[in-house]
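Quick illustration, no need to memorize.
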Amino acid sequence: MFRQIYQWIESKLPTNRPSDLSQSLGQDGALGEAGHVRLRCRVQFPKKNGSPRSPLPSVTGSVVSIHAATIYQMSLRRLKLFSSKRCQQLEKLGIDTAGALVDADPYWIAGHFSAKKKAERSIRHYQQAIRVAASVPEMLPHHASLLFRIHRKHRKGLAAETPTKLFRDLQRYSESTSGRKHLRGGALPPVERIKVWIDHCAKTESFEFQQSMAG
């Protein structure tokens, strides 16, 4: 049946001589070595209602991969998580990038400080902030650490937020004593950037939900 359809379509097409085609296409070798053109026709039939759908594209594509690589290569001083003194202490231990900090053992790092339990909790907090920031485009580790302070630690929770509400909550925290100390004079992320975070988290959650239902 497909051959008959192809032959019928081919019979309806105009027939051109090689010389005519060379004049219309130009002398750039477009006709090929044989001096003729093969015409290809593709007939596409509508899919049946019961046919399986094509798999959804992954939302964690090259953009997220590049962002994560950038985060893990950042120096400790660029993370804006530590004071200069704390950065120097970690650099003496051979930890000078975000990736090195994430890979390090928090218990081992805490052993080099006087308040070991407090230091271990802080290191785990910073490690988690780096991991979360690496998984969300346009989020930096100090942004994630700031979100943790207002009890937004999970992607699922961010997916259900609205940019304006989340920004208002960050504003309230920035006006508190602990918020001012945490920000160290830095600015809050703008609403446009917060929207990018929320949109990404919502798409990721939707994709994973559809994948789980399909599986």
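DSSP finds 13 helices and no strands in the chain.
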